[in-house]
Design goal:
about 750 residues; mainly alpha; two-stranded antiparallel ribbon; 34 helices; rod-shaped; disordered N terminus; protein transport
């Protein structure tokens, strides 16, 4: 039996040490001593990106803000993120930028982010996650309701400010008709707006309007209220009070209580006013002034008037629609037992959703308007989800970031949602999968020279981290995993030094923890996946030479195992497992005399290199040399000395796993080499070579003793090291040599 057929015995040499895993998270869990909060079914995120798509202008202008945001977080400085995103969007040209800018303005007003210059607050700073306790706490509790009213007021303020800007532009378009000059007051500007609206040439007729000095008096009050000038509107109303008809004699009193009570009529007064309004018969009125009906609707805070008088021609835009309903909101949730004419934010939100994009988007020509309507009604998760499905994908991601920064974004616990948006409970409270949103966007950046860009976005996932809660700890660990995966997929090892600067944002306390959590864990993953050079590069970053030697030993063991199996290596694998290169590296480390390296590790390395020579000699059928090498290695006993045999068997148990896993195949090959050498001697003896017969006979007897010693040695090995199948093969070869 001269064949060099190689024994087979299963999978990779590492499989007893590392178990195959369906996802990166499971292997990371296996290699860290800390408790894990990631479930076995956690989805793996890949940051490999083969796309040739170039980063567009939106990517670039927003990325600059993200870097500044993270640096501000690192310095523990409040950052006016919405204003900075607003300024970035202004750099985007054409109509696209203008539409997005308006939405950023709206959001800044909603959360009251103001007095910001170059990202810094000059006064009244908003803190990171400022609104999270109220917004993400129990639904409809006192804190949530208070916050919701603040958000509504911010939305109204935006619509009023926008209307003031529109008023100025409109008056400038009809300067002759508006007759406005000098430095006009708010009251005079309102008059000018009305003159332009009701101009004789192409304006809205004043038929049915109560006029004083060619100005609709109810319109004058309304325009001031619509512009946000409530005090001025009250002053004007008082000035017109004596000119109002008898049925409106109490309006000014109601209006004053509305203004002085923070734009909310006291409940008792409202009940009286609504009762009076329900008795109306508009056909009996001397005037049918739509402005009057609008003002009554505002003060009574009714979603619609009882008799539904025609006011649409005076409230023509979606902005008017939204403002009218926001100013009429009296409650946040429907109150049991409250009059059914009481408008709540919850019901307004449902109204906006029921109307849908088609109502706001002007026949699909302006897709961002529905997004703005959702923002203005504090439906932030749904707003981002909607916008993400349009051509404004990049903007949707950054709106989500701004909202998450201030704590105005609910995310599902433990990232369990497969969908981007999920609605939970009877109230259908929306949760946005912020993790998926950011990871998908980061993936688009993780190509070319942009893995560091992707890292800046992954840092934002830590906004929802909290070491004091289970969900928060889960989020932190998941963020660690995403960052490891980014480095793994892009091999951005040279970025680790820069990444380390952001340890505080990653809830990592010191360099040692960073090394273990990110670098060492990632290196172990590279080892499991056979990316040995990548693992060595990672260990060299931390000068962990002990692990490097251990890694090189693993590489040698893997090479030996592959050689034994006769597996044809792919070029990439062959390059990874080049024994000559490994030998060169080991000699280099020995030459510089690194003290941190254990002598036993280096001894194992030399043993493995010799084993490589042994296996190569066997494959080349140089059995004599192979037997000589394996004896010199002193791995197995070759004398029938029970004490020595027992000592060798015990020493095998102390071997590193990567070497121990090769023992069965090496033992089998050793026996085959001895057997093949023995057969060669028998052939030589049969030829009857003169003068050598005695030599061949002695050598054959020596080989027989070596074979018996190996079989005895195998009997002392534990089943965990040597299978019964290998033992029987050894015994069979031994019997054939007797």
């Amino acid at each position: 039996m001269r064949s060099t057929e190689l024994p087979t015995s299963g999978g990779s040499v590492f499989r007893s040490q590392f178990s195959p895993s369906a996802s990166l998270s499971s292997s990371f869990r296996a290699s860290t001593s800390k408790p894990s909060y990631i479930t076995s079914g956690e989805r793996r995120i890949s940051f490999k990106n083969e796309s040739t798509l170039q980063l567009n202008q939106r990517h670039l202008v927003y990325f600059d803000v993200i870097v500044k945001l993270n640096n501000a977080r690192l310095a523990k400085i409040e950052y006016g993120i919405i204003n900075e995103f607003h300024n970035a969007a202004r750099k985007i040209s054409l109509d696209y930028g203008r539409k997005v800018v308006q939405c950023w303005r709206a959001l800044a007003s909603i959360v009251k982010e103001s007095n910001v210059f170059d990202g810094s607050f000059k006064r009244n700073p908003l803190k990171q996650r400022q609104f999270a306790p109220a917004y993400q706490g129990p639904a409809f509790n006192t804190a949530y309701k208070s916050l919701s009213f603040d958000l509504i007021n911010g939305a109204k303020h935006y619509l009023e400010e926008s209307y003031r800007e529109w008023s100025t532009a409109y008056v400038n378009s009809f300067r002759n008709e508006a007759m406005l000059g000098g430095q006009p007051s708010a009251i005079n500007m309102a008059r000018a707006v009305l003159r332009a609206i009701h101009r004789s040439n192409g304006g809205i007729p004043t038929t049915g309007l109560r006029m004083v000095d060619n100005i609709p008096i109810w319109g004058h009050i309304f325009i001031l209220v619509r512009q946000g000038y409530y005090k001025e509107a009250l002053d004007v109303a008082k000035g017109y009070e004596s000119l109002l008809p008898r049925q409106d004699i109490h309006f000014v009193r109601y209006f004053e209580r509305f203004i002085t009570n923070n734009n909310k009529l006291p409940s008792q007064d409202r009940q009286k006013l609504v009762a009076e309004m329900k008795q109306w018969n508009p056909l009996t009125f001397q005037d049918k002034d739509p402005y009057k009906f609008i003002m009554y609707q505002i003060v009574a805070q009714l979603e619609e008037l009882p008799q539904k008088p025609p006011v649409e021609s005076f409230l023509t835009t979606s902005e008017d629609f939204m403002w009218m309903r926001l100013i009429c909101v009296r409650e946040i949730e429907p109150i049991v037992g409250a009059p059914n004419d009481t408008l709540s934010l919850d019901s307004l939100q449902k109204t906006v959703r029921n109307l849908g994009p088609s109502h706001f988007n002007h026949g699909g020509k302006d897709t961002i308007q529905y997004f703005r309507a959702l923002l203005l009604t504090a439906q932030f998760e749904r707003a981002v989800h909607y916008l993400y499905q349009t051509t404004f994908t990049e903007d949707a991601v950054h709106f989500a970031i701004a909202l998450a920064y201030y704590g105005l974004l609910r995310i599902p616990d433990k990232g369990e949602a497969m969908a981007l948006l999920v609605e939970v409970g009877d109230r259908m409270i929306p949760y946005l999968n912020f993790n998926t949103l950011i990871c998908q966007y980061a993936r688009s950046l993780a190509k070319g020279n942009a893995p560091s860009n992707a890292f800046q976005y992954l840092l934002l996932l830590y906004l929802h981290g909290d070491p004091l809660t289970e969900a928060g700890r889960y989020q932190i660990e998941l963020c660690h995993e995403y960052i490891r995966q980014l480095i793994y997929d892009t091999e951005a090892f040279n970025e680790l030094g820069k990444m380390k600067e952001y340890m505080p944002l990653m809830f990592i306390d010191n360099e040692g923890e960073f090394t273990e959590t990110i670098i060492n864990t990632l290196a172990r993953q590279c080892v499991e996946d056979g990316k040995f050079k990548a693992a060595r590069s990672l260990y060299e970053l931390t000068q962990n030479f002990e692990e490097i030697i251990s890694l090189l030993n693993k590489m040698l063991a893997e090479y030996i195992w592959i050689s034994i199996r006769g597996v044809v290596m792919q070029p990439e694998t062959a390059k990874e497992l080049d024994p000559q290169e490994i030998s060169r590296i080991l000699k280099e480390y020995e030459h510089i005399g690194i003290r941190k390296i254990s002598p036993n590790r280096l001894k194992d390395s030399r043993t493995l290199l010799n084993l490589v020579d042994f296996v190569e000699s066997y494959k080349q059928q140089d059995f004599v040399r192979a037997v000589t090498i394996i004896q010199q290695i002193d791995l197995f006993p070759f004398e029938d000395d029970i004490i020595v045999i027992q000592q060798k068997a015990s020493s095998i148990e102390a071997f590193d796993d990567q070497l121990k896993n090769c023992i069965p195949e090496l033992l089998h090959i050793t026996m085959r080499c001895i057997y093949a050498y023995y057969q060669q001697l028998k052939d030589n003896m049969a030829k009857g070579t003169p003068g050598l017969l005695r030599k061949y006979t002695d050598e054959s007897a020596t080989l027989q003793r070596k074979a018996r010693a190996l079989v005895t040695f195998a009997g002392y090995l534990k089943h965990s090291v040597l299978s019964s199948d290998i033992y029987h093969k050894l015994h069979e070869l031994d019997v054939q040599m007797r």
